[in-house]
Specification:
The chain has ten helices and no strands. By secondary structure, the protein is mainly alpha-helical. It has one domain (about 20-150, about 165-290). Keywords: Membrane, Transmembrane, Transmembrane helix.
Length: about 290
């Protein structure tokens, strides 16, 4: 009985007509992603964190954020929907890559490869949703500033709650504390360990992506709280979100020029590290001007 309302609520969220445009944009990005993936360098084995080329999804996120900035539904939620739907391109390319890899593996290695593939696939879809959500936030910020230029007399949002009532900075703190530990484990322990440590590392990376999603959402919500409360320090969330997105694009470009085995995987790590840096700077500034954390 308790599960029925939750299932009904989930079904309503999945079939929300307000997200129809976000769904269509995600679907439209899939063939473009697949075309770009045709030129990708094949992987030798399994690469934790590998993704298909994300350029179409970055563009889709920007468009969706711009489109939904003044709608009744949050642009970041629309960005997540676009990312989840658009990750179908990631799924198709990854499955094709897996089939090619399995042809030359022993039965034991085939089983290990399939398990790692499933973990990597979940990690990839989650990261695509994070990346698209971040780009949607940037798109919404651009749209809001364009609207403000067109109508400079537009009223500011009314105050909703005091600054002290906000606890949105807590997930940001969690991410700042967790990210270095996970990356340390992945780069220094997994590289020297066996198959078991690789699986643990992949699971930890998935948890890291989840905490990164929570951190991005919390950054946006916390900055909104500070603005609504007319706090002395009113940061722009786009400053702390756009930076990691830019780092992702830059690392991807550099890795491609250097003929890395899988540039999107390198770019994912660049995004995670850049988000850690921007989150740390945000917390330092928040403590300096607001007093918490």
């Amino acid at each position: 009985m308790v599960l029925m309302p939750s299932f009904r609520s989930l079904l309503e969220r999945l079939t929300d007509d307000r997200l129809r445009a976000a769904t269509l944009v995600g679907l439209a990005s899939i063939p473009i992603t697949l075309v770009l993936a045709l030129d990708a360098v094949p992987r030798d084995g399994v690469v934790i964190g590998g993704l298909s080329p994300a350029t179409p999804l970055l563009a889709a996120g920007l468009f969706v954020g711009y489109h939904y900035h003044d709608r009744s539904i949050a642009s970041r939620r629309a960005g997540v929907r676009t990312g989840l739907v658009g990750s179908g391109g990631v799924l198709a390319e990854s499955v094709a890559d897996l089939v090619t890899t399995l042809g030359s593996e022993s039965p034991a290695m085939t089983a290990v490869t399939v398990v790692l593939f499933l973990v990597e696939l979940v990690l990839g879809v989650a990261f695509v949703a994070l990346l698209t959500m971040a780009s949607a936030i940037v798109g919404a910020w651009v749209a809001s500033n364009v609207a403000r230029v067109r109508d400079p007399t537009a009223p500011r949002a009314e105050r909703e709650r005091p600054v002290d009532d906000s606890r949105w900075w807590l997930p940001v703190v969690v991410y700042v504390l967790v990210a270095p530990l996970v990356l340390l484990f992945v780069f220094w322990i997994v590289s020297d360990g066996g198959g078991g440590s690789v699986i643990i590392g992949a699971l930890l990376l998935f948890c890291l992506v989840v905490t990164a999603i929570a951190a991005v959402v919390s950054l946006v919500k916390d900055t909104e709280t500070l603005v609504d409360a007319s706090a002395a320090w009113q940061p722009l969330s786009v400053v702390y979100v756009a930076g990691p997105v830019g780092v992702y694009a830059l690392v991807y470009l550099v890795a491609s020029l250097r003929q890395s085995i899988h540039p999107p995987g390198d770019a994912m790590y660049g995004f995670v590290v850049a988000l850690w840096g921007s989150s740390l700077v945000y917390l330092i500034n928040r403590h300096r001007y607001v007093g918490t954390p």
